[in-house]
Amino acid sequence: MSRKLEGLKPGRVFYYFEEITKIPRCSFHEEKISNFLKEFGKEQELETIQDEALNIIIKKPGTPGYENSPKVVLQGHMDMVCEQEEDLNHDFSKDPLKLILEGDFIKAEGTTLGGDNGIAVAMALALLESKDIPHPPLEVLMTTNEESGMDGAKALDPKHIDGRILINIDSEEEGTILVSCAGGERNKVKVPIEWEPLKLSGNELIYSIKTSGLQGGHSGMEIHKGRGNANKIISRVLAFVKDECKFHLVHIEGGSKTNAIPRNGRAIIVLNKEDENIFIQATEALEEQIQKELENSDPKFNLIVEKINLKVDRVFTEDSLNRTIAALTLIPTGVQSMSGDMEGLVESSNNLGVVRTFDEEVTIESAIRSSKETLKKNIGKQIKTVADIVKGQWESYGSYPAWEYSKDSQIREIFKRVYKSQYGENIKVAAIHAGLECGIFAEKFHNMDMISFGPNMFGVHTPEERLSISSTQRTYELLINVLKEIK
Asked: What is the pTM of this model?
């Protein structure tokens, strides 16, 4: 059976990247990929540790001449965000990803690619098996559940790691090294709902309202791009229509991951036939307004409003409808503040990521990010206040710290020097609004010297995710040359 990525360089990196695209590794379901990495370490006759959180640590001695060099931790995460196109029937628990080559890019057919952070795993495995690449002693650390709370990094026992230089391979812009990142937490609001029986008169119409054409994206990397949030749009439609005609709400949902800007949202409503024209006119008018607002950031957006056949015997009470709309309207989303220290850097944000309807409640989940702890807490307080207003419950979970900039960094200086030698230009040193596990490692390991870098990737956390082949080759060469300099 031919390999889709055969012939691409660096050969062993893309060999292992293709291998792991065959293995299920959604967040919270990393058993198979963790066991794969464990068996790899044993086959290479390297010291291998699999902890209770399924984190994997594989240790390889330095090559001749590097035996006593400083130990270097190569770090990434093994899980991936599992998103797919709405009409695709793909089972991430068993189906391999279907890889596509488009020019300089690797994509997956209708799904996320998992380049975030499978490329770190692939690079690390290629280095671990290599016999001819000079390098200092390596400790490869691959964590679990980075995408939904960084649970693997939090659970890691520091005793397993001896190195105090850490290279995180979880960035998505070639030519840039990251030296600081935002902290974050998840918030959940539960809006209690009551139902009432739908009194049928034979005059009812059932309509579905859906978003279409939104790009979505990474809620840290792309929150500043002004892309439409499906959950906000659906709640805006309901609030707008409610001012024009009476309707009953049957169901509302949107998004699938708190850390992905939601692309898809849907509401199902019941209205009277005599209000149909008013309803259609209202949704068409609002669709036109939103299309104008998103013409640069989400030019393919539209609303799909259609009559459906569905048996409905109960609907939200009017009070439950009002409180649901209020919560979705009042919870902030998008950029909340910009950094005063670094031009163009988002300082704090919130992503209203997931909405679900259950028998007793509507749940609304958000991902807060901030480089300042006080602002993170303040956004959480705003969301809690909304929960209080709508007589709901609020909880926060999955908190992780920011990674603060260090003035002195040996590994940063090595990267700068090697990059300048390799390309004749200066590498960009930057901070990022997304979260990285470096913040947790800064707390766990005293005096850990860290940077983060990686190849060009686009559309991360969406089915449009793509990884640059040539950038991967250059990034891997940079890593090899950096390791040669650590003596």
From this structure: 0.79
pLDDT at 398 over 90: no
Q: What is the mean pLDDT of residues 338-342?
A: 86
Q: Looking at 201-343, list the stretches that DSSP marks H as alpha helix, in order from N- to C-terminal side.
A: 230-242, 276-293, 318-330
The answer to whether 487 and 165 have CB atoms below 8 angstroms apart is no
Task: Give, rounded to a whole angstrom, the gap between the first and last alpha carbons of the chain.
Answer: 42
DSSP β-bridge partners for residue 348: 337, 370
Dihedral sign of CA atoms 61, 63, 65, 66 in order: negative
pLDDT score recorded for residue 87: 85
- What are the residues facing 458 on neighbouring strands? 466
- For 68-129, strand residue ranges (E) read 72-77, 99-102, 105-108
In this prediction, residues 198-220 reach a mean pLDDT of: 93
Could you tell me which residues come within 8 angstroms of residue 185 by beta carbon, excluding any fewer than 6 positions away?
367, 368, 376, 380, 396, 397, 398, 399, 400
3 state SS of 71:
coil
* H-state helical runs in 294-409: 318-330, 373-389
Nearest C-alpha neighbor of 457 from the set 270, 291, 222, 234: 222
Report whether 47 contacts 59 (CB < 8 A).
Answer: yes
What does each C-alpha distance from 66 to 315, 452, 473, 487 come to in angstroms?
70, 23, 24, 6
pLDDT of 404 reads 87
Residue 257, φ and ψ in degrees, nearest 5: -135, 140
Which residues, in sequence order, are bridge partners of residue 392? none
- The amino acid present at 352, given as its one-letter code, is L
Checking if the pLDDT of 186 tops 70, the result is: yes
Q: Which residues are catalytic?
A: 79, 146
Q: Cβ atoms within 10 A of the Cβ of 447, count?
A: 7
* pLDDT score of 24: 96
CA distance 330 to 113: 34
Quick check: 106 pLDDT over 70? yes
